[in-house]
Amino acid sequence: MHSNAAKTVQSQSGATDAARPRAELHSSVLPFLVLIVSIAATLVTWYVLRTQAEANAAAEFDNYTRQTAQTMSTRLQSYEESLQAVVALFAASSIVTREDWRRFVDRLELGRDHPAVEMLGFARHLGTDQRALHERDMQAQGLPEYRIWPAGTRSDYVAVTFIEPFSARLLGYDMLSDPASRQAVEQARASGSVSLSSPWTVAAPARPKLQATLLMFEPLSPGEGAQRAAAHDRAPIGYVFAALDCDQVMADTYRDSLVDVGLAVYDGTRPSPDSLLYANTRARDALAGRSKPAFEGRMQLTVAGREWTLRFLSAPYDQAVPERHMSLVALAAGLPLSLLLFGIAWSQATMRTRAVQIAKEMTKSLHAQAGLLNLTHDTVFLRDRNNTIRYWNRGASDTYGYSAEEAIGRTVDELLHTRFALPLDQIWRELEDTDRWEGELVHTRRDGSEVVVASRWAVQRDARGAIEAILETNNDVTEHRRAEQERRRLEAGLLQASKLEAMGTLAGGIAHDFNNILGAILGYGELAESEVAAGSALGRYVDNIMSAGHRAKSLVARILAFSRSGIAQLRPVHVQSVVAETLDLLSASLPDEVHVESNLAADDAAVMADPTQIHQIVLNLCMNAIQAMKSGGTLFVRLDVVALPTPLTLVTGPLSPGDYVHLSVSDTGPGIEASLRDRIFDPFFTTKGFGVGTGLGLSLVHGIATDLGGGVDMQSEVGRGTTFDVHLPCCGRAPQVEQQPQVLPQGNGETIMLVDDEEPLVRLGEEIIAKLGYEPVGFVSSAEALQAFQADPQRFDVVLSDETMPGMTGSQLAERIRVMSPDVPIILMSGYAAAPLAARAFAVDADVLNKPLLAHDMARSLESALRRRSGVRSFN
């Protein structure tokens, strides 16, 4: 029995000894298997990441080229639509004046919506027999120097008639004289639609080839609707055109792009150096052989009937495939990791089963926790101390557009391009101190749009207390912030509108009352002028009174223009005479210690403006200089004409090349400190004492100069003085107007109803009307005037009524008179003749006469009204 037991134990021992080598062999082989598998996995991962990075870069490049071509096509289409809008202006009106053109172009706001449009114009199509008549007509419109150029006789012409911004140099230019513009005009004529030229150098001959100007033409056919369609085969009456800055067109196309891709644009379907229109820096480097692009693509684009070839050139391989480093990282990390795993497997082979079990349990737990985080709509992701994303929930995928597979392993900055409201160092200090941070961030989605999030960060630390990971939870608050910004914008706009409305109302009220006062001064002054002997001392006194009254009348008109309550009447102004007149007025009130030196050498140069505007510029600059020289000094005033061959940058902005009237006003005062120079043109800003200045002088100069297309510059040296230079676009020549005695039209005993609530103005008006040969009947109440008209409607030949009256306004009185007598001429008077009054006058078929009333204004207005009643149309 003992023998059998011993054999059994021996047998078991042998079985154990036999099993031990197999276990040891298994334990020794497993680490090598781990090493082989991990190295193989590392190589496969490296290859897959590298291939995927190249594929992603190629797809991104291809997508970018398509988007860029589409954006360029859409942008150019918008320029075509702007030309069609101008065509609509000509289609809507039989006569388009130069002022209509300027206001319409201003409303287009090309600088904001179409910055690539350098100028917008209209060129009229003329035959040889129409040229002389057209030139005389343009010269009669205030452009005495207008000629069609280049010189020479041709079968027909396409001459620039309107252009904005205004350039006297380009007026009259024949678009058929240049091959580039001629080809585009002929294409537009043949197709009846928009056409685009090759590079055009007439507007900017000094530009290099790759800063080309392109012309876009839209033909304007005679007639409208079906008539216009029938006239398609006839020659157009002209062409609306836009000059486009090729560089700006391309900049608008990809200004929001963050992709470093070269773009070269060629004119035509066969790219060559001679047909190159545009190339950015990346493209020029590639074309010159300084870099080798990783990817290249070409696309054809039809632009206004013209074929363009777009050539896209990516960055070199190491820049075009930014994700390639991930494959190198995987390779560099995988090999040491394989050796590490080999060591772990070798030392822990006996614990493999337990480790696998623990790993399964941890994985199950993590999946359970991740499932809970996927239930929230907030974005939740975990990033390590290197800012690399390690977890990405479903809410993050919905918000940012990246799947978990795309996000995990990439850094937050690379993926979301985070913008912080606070310095990053300050955020990290708060995290170190409190383990938490809350605030707003701006992230970029996959589609390029931005999202504002309310972000909450929580820190996870390792056993040594160092930050190991950060859990970031974000809530999308973009719409909420956008709504707040819109609300603030609307509130600011409403406040500004209220201020402007209040200013306009105040200016209108002051103008009405002041013009009533001026009416009596000027009216009785005119009567006095007709009674005194010419050349007498009393005559000179009356003339000075009338001159001051006219100046006050012009000043009120300028106040209305400053508050946007009126519109200046622009015409060619003889600048030198206005400057000389202003200096004469100033000389009478100069302090004894201030001397004036002037050099007026502009001769007959003209500026398209209102004379009062020129007067205001000179007066404000001179008064500003005089007040600066409290201890005396010299005021220098210089006027000349300068030609700018290249753009000139002033304090108020850049000036285009051209001819300008240049006014320089200098003083020998203390100068302006550098800290104040940025504010001198701000409204109501002044360094003078209380009651000395209002702070509106330089602001008014700035506003007038920029409204007229010019600019203001300033140089100042502390202790040496200040110089202001004003440049205004020259519009040719305007000879100084000599005042000629006027023969006023006389009446033939017609009865005139005169209505005004100011009794002195009624008495004055009756006296003026009587001297003009009419029979006046005055009323100080609109109700009494209405009763008199009801009693005998046939008695009155013309009704002349003030607009602003208590009880019943002039337009309300006109409405009731129109019911009784539809044909009687009605004239509404007002010292505040703004746009609303014009609309009310149009509704009752009445004329408008501005106060203060002068004899010649009243005489012409009454004559015109009586002519229309008799069926004779007046053009005066």
> Which CATH first-tier class of one domain would you pick?
Alpha Beta
Globular, elongated, flat, extended or rod-shaped: what is the shape? elongated
* Distance between the amino and carboxyl termini: 150 Å
Q: Beta fraction of the residues? A: 15-25%
So how many helices? 25
Indicate the structural class.
Answer: alpha+beta
**Please, what is the CATH homologous superfamily of one domain?**
CHASE domain
Query: Which spans have pLDDT < 50 for at least 5 consecutive residues?
Result: 1-17, 224-232, 689-695, 872-876
Q: How confident overall, as mean pLDDT?
A: 79
CATH architecture of one domain: 2-Layer Sandwich
- From the alpha carbons, calculate the radius of gyration and give it in angstroms: 41 Å
CATH-derived topology of one domain: Beta-Lactamase
Largest sheet: 7 strands, mixed
Task: Please provide a written account of the structure.
This protein has 876 residues and is an alpha+beta fold. Among the domains are: 28-347, Beta-Lactamase (2-Layer Sandwich); 568-733, Heat Shock Protein 90 (2-Layer Sandwich); 751-869, 3-Layer(aba) Sandwich (Rossmann fold), CATH 3.40.50. Helix content is 47%, strand content 22%. The radius of gyration is 41 Å and the shape is elongated.
